[in-house]
Amino acid sequence: MKIIPKKSLGQNFLVDKNIICNIARLIDNKSDLNLIEIGPGYGSLTSELIKKKPNKLVVIEKDEKLVNILKENFGSNIDIVNDDILNISFENYIIKNTVIIGNLPYNISTKILTNLIKFINKKNSIKYVIFMFQKEVADRIIAKENSKEYGRISILVNWKMNVKKLFDINPECFNPKPKIKSTLLFFEPKTKIFELKRSKTLEHITNIFFQQRRKIIKNSMKLLFSDYLYVSKYLGIDLNLRPQNLSVETYLKISDFYEKNYFNKSLT
Fold this sequence. Notes:
By secondary structure, this protein is an alpha/beta fold. It has two domains: about 5-190, Vaccinia Virus protein VP39 (Rossmann fold, 3-Layer(aba) Sandwich), CATH 3.40.50; about 200-260, rRNA adenine dimethylase, C-terminal domain (Helicase, Ruva Protein, domain 3), CATH 1.10.8. The chain is about 35% helix and about 20% strand. The protein has helices spanning about 15-25, 45-50, 65-75, 110-120, 135-140, 150-160, 200-210, 220-225, 230-235, 250-260, and strands at about 15, 35-40, 55-60, 80, 100-105, 125-135, 160-170, 175, 180-190. A seven-stranded mixed beta sheet has the order 4-3-2-5-6-9-7. β2 (about 35-40), α2 and β3 (about 55-60) form a beta-alpha-beta unit. α1 (about 15-25) runs parallel beside α2, α4 (about 110-120) packs parallel to α6 and α6 crosses α10 (about 250-260). The N and C termini lie far apart (about 45 Å).
């Protein structure tokens, strides 16, 4: 069955065999490993993951035509979830020693990552995550403070995960060819996670700051705190800095103070 990639689903199928094998080599050869693959497409990577002989391999695919191909090609070797990944509750599928991997649909890649970050806590059993993004998105995810790429997604990810770049992938390795390169990233949950009661607190704080990215943070602090001078002094924050100059730890401290003293219940 010939499948025409759907632009509406952000489908860009990875077809380069060498790249596929290189990605598969990143996965441990352990029988107790539980794998989740997001957006398997035709199953090019899936076939390599099966060779790892994991305890369980769950693939999540929205496109029903692709689901039929996966069923025909792999049968009982995989568990297929025919649903939109954005409708999936990760807690229903993550069990002991889980590794999540995926060539994410470009149009919803950051949303998928954000949903996963919100789920992660000290009690999870996620070993690591390997995701592919458009290069410009990956650059924002791994960006550090004092860089132009640094922003909300950088902060949210680095709150709970250690992330590193693995390698870039050229457009010619996909069908259809995207306009820019892609990048494979490796994520590992932190052993010590700064405690916030609500991830929405951090999202709210960073939204306020980065809406005024080019202005000094005094403006954002005024919006958040009526006694912003006291708060900035208490937290040791220079009001003449700009949003990209603050570390992840500083944003977490601001969020923690806001949550304990100013939190608006409408954010729940």
